[in-house]
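User: I would dearly like some help making sense of a protein record. I have put the entry right below:
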Amino acid sequence: MSERNTVVRSLNDLGLAAWFGGTLAGAVGINGAAADVQDRNQRLRVANAGWARWAPVNLAAIGAHLVGSAGLLLGNKGRTVAQSGVGAASVAKTVLTGAALAATAYSRALGKKLENAEPAPVEGGTDPAPDSPPEVAAAQKQLAVTQWLIPALTAALVVVNAVHGELQRPSQALPGILAKPAKLLGLND
């Protein structure tokens, strides 16, 4: 009898898709569009307004992903322990998720700094102008990194999810389950 994890898998995948896609669209669209605003003192306001509108959706997406991930881990705990490769992929997913969460939280904190600094002359959402206040320029330079780091980390999570999916193939599952005890017994050196 097979057990299905459709709901938690959907939460995991849809949450991650929104987290990845939203941050990538924000880096390209929101931050890029802010540079097109004529008034340099309003560019930061436009970028901040776009990110502030995205923040609650992003929070919901991250929450859905975390609930889905936890559900998948619980639903597959036997495989995680028994099948070679599943535990390592789960550890990699946990580390990447932690890093993506930290980068996202730090990015939001930087965004709040910029919201409090409005109005300030800037070139774009993450591009300071020569006459930008130093605290604005510093936050923007850090955001210029996190705007690409978050999509990179969440893209890596998509890849790890693909690895997990591949490990569920019948051609991978049985040999992976048999490899674990063989490794513990020293039979497959």
